Amino acid sequence: MPPAVAEKLYTATDLIAARGLQKTKIEDIAKASGVPKATLYYYFKGKDDILAFLFRDSLDALARDVASAADAPGPGRDRLAAVIEVQVAHTMHRPGTAQALVGDLGRAIRLPELASAVQEAFYEPIARVLHAGAADGSLRNLADPESTAISIFGAIMMTAMLHNVIDSEKTQDEVASEVMHLIEHGLAPSH
């Protein structure tokens, strides 16, 4: 699929998020995105495929950026802050995609490639930096870093999404800093 067509499809995510996939027709997606219905059917079997493509495409881009932040040199605490910044920025940059993902999370995680993409973009990098932070002393040792990573994912996703929904005046950096502040006080090593 040409990148220009893919980019246009993202404009339909606000509609999908507002109505839900069940109540959204291919015609609605075509109109909202400016991509002709015939073109949509050329590339996709139906609206489920369109949403799956958008999730996969968005999560692939996020996974690349998050991996860079998670695998950068430095203490685990700094890398966790960088991962949070990337995830908040991504969620706030494409609010419709994030809302559609949460709205259709049950459908998304039943698709093995999307469940794997969510894990790669969100849980695994957070768990890696939690392990690294425990090893270097910048974060405390956790009994179950993987479960904690899922909780942190929820805090990031919901906080960033809700700031978009309420039209918050906070910047992506401010939101990421607030999420990190909340997490850090629960994860900081005791003195």
UniProtKB/TrEMBL annotation:
Task: Provide this UniProt record's keywords sorted from A to Z.
Answer: DNA-binding, Transcription, Transcription regulation
Looking at the UniProt feature table, which residue ranges are given for the DNA-binding region? 25-44
GO molecular function terms attached to this record: DNA-binding transcription factor activity; transcription cis-regulatory region binding
Q: Which domain of life is it from?
A: Bacteria
Q: Cross-referenced InterPro entries, in alphabetical order?
A: Homeodomain-like_sf (IPR009057), HTH-type_TetR-like_transc_reg (IPR050109), HTH_TetR (IPR001647), Tet_transcr_reg_TetR-rel_C_sf (IPR036271)
Q: Where does the secretion signal sit in this chain?
A: none
Instruction: Enumerate the spans annotated as HTH tetR-type domain.
Output: 2-62
Q: Name one Pfam family in it.
A: TetR_N
Q: What is this protein called?
A: TetR/AcrR family transcriptional regulator
